[in-house]
Amino acid sequence: MAVSETNGQEGPAGRESAGGEWLIYRGTGERHEGIRALPKPPPWRDFDGGGHPLVAPGPDTDSVSARRLGAFRHLAEMHRPSAEELEIINAALYLRRPLLVTGSPGTGKSTLAHSVAFELGLGRVLHWPVVSRSRLEDGLYHYDAIARLQDAQIAASGRAAGLSSAAVPGGIGSYLRLGPLGTALLPTAKPRVLLIDELDKSDIDLPNDLLNVLEEGEFTLPELQRIAEREPEVEVLTDDGAKVTVREGRVRCHAFPFVVLTSNGERDFPAPLLRRCIPLRLGRPDHERLATVVRAHLGDDLTRVGEDLISRFLERSRTEQLATDQLLNAIYLTHHAELPTRDRLADMLIQRLDQPR
Questions:
Q1: Which of 120, 136, 144, 337 has the maximal Cβ count within 10 Å?
Q2: Are 264 and 313 members of one domain?
Q3: CA-to-CA distance for 351 and 310, rounded, in angstroms?
Q4: The Cα angle at residue 330 between residues 325 and 333, in degrees rounded to 5
């Protein structure tokens, strides 16, 4: 599958000339109700929520998104993608397909999910940080069977001792909590935003394990299916901390979530996963985009003070692997220092990531 690569050099004028009237996500950083104009999905990506009532929308974007997008984001064209990037992101929205974002560390892969959630009013970003030990079940739900057994034993001991105040253990739903992926697949009127971060760090099996869930938009909880005849409805906790009702041990989405899979490009993914995703490669940012990132997080004054560091960072990044957060750290810290300490601190904080230290 072809992968598009962009370098952030398109300006607003380029976006306006790219047939932008069809765009739902516009990358402006301003909230709007464009998600209401999203057409119905193609028939092969149309989900019915299992015929169950829709659950309440998730909470509003939280401090994590505010930190990602920057305290001064109103001053900058922060995270405004190029025309080609906008088209790819909106293709994922229209087609209800996961967006596979590849790029070097610090190019804004994870921030993209927060930007879409903020602009379209899709609520708190559900975040699943993948590590080498991550399994599909970690993203779907967790059942604490040990805690349930311990509570039952404590209650039995209390009754045996004749304690009228012995705690009565809760039902099975008290020991079940949906993970980020499981919560994203709840039947909601508007799609949730799910960030599956650094998928290339996973065990070799996880990308294949994700295939069926991402294709079918549903999953089952065997613990609840076994008792479905006598207890068809069970309240469980979500990743947001709210309670929802799961019916007959099955969760099926209504609006397929906007899923962002990120990768640093450290491994290849199987073809079945690639064909189910819309690929986007984020290239090395140019001077203008780096400056807008700094402005969004640190404001105009520090951006002007750090102009020389931005230029040096950009020049070094042509031959060295660097991350944007290194630049932010350097500008924030060095504005308190004078020369030559300032240059020494900057060099200490901006060290190349592609060789041993």
A1: 120
A2: no
A3: 14
A4: 120
